[in-house]
Amino acid sequence: MHIKAEPPYYAVIFTSRRTEGDNGYAEAAARMGELAAQQPGFLGWDAARTGPELGITVSYWKDEESIAGWRNHLEHAPTREHGRANWYEDFEVHVARVERTYRWTKES
């Protein structure tokens, strides 16, 4: 996804290893994506998964207040707890301030 914002902004990097089976994960992930996109300060996200071995989701935010707003969202908080109990073997979250960015696209 191309982020249409000039730095500085923030990136929340979520890396995870999933448990076996879907167990409602895909539906909940789609819902969380819809909700995050509606939050003040949300700029976009990128995600990749290599099966259960590794998943990486990076969400981009205007500022730390926007990140806190999403973290405390009424529907996000219980879904996050459900994930700890049912969907993840482990995960890590990193919050970083993006100071510089560039893009390259191959010409057709």
From TrEMBL:
Record's keyword annotation contains Oxidoreductase: yes
GO molecular function: monooxygenase activity
Lineage: superkingdom: Bacteria
Domain ABM: 9-77
Gene3D superfamilies listed in its UniProt record: 3.30.70.100
UniProt xrefs under Pfam families: ABM
Key words of the record: Monooxygenase, Oxidoreductase
The UniProt record lists the keyword Oxidoreductase: yes
PANTHER family (UniProt xref): ABM DOMAIN-CONTAINING PROTEIN (PTHR37811:SF2), BLL5343 PROTEIN (PTHR37811)
Protein name: Heme-degrading monooxygenase HmoA
Species of provenance: Amycolatopsis xylanica
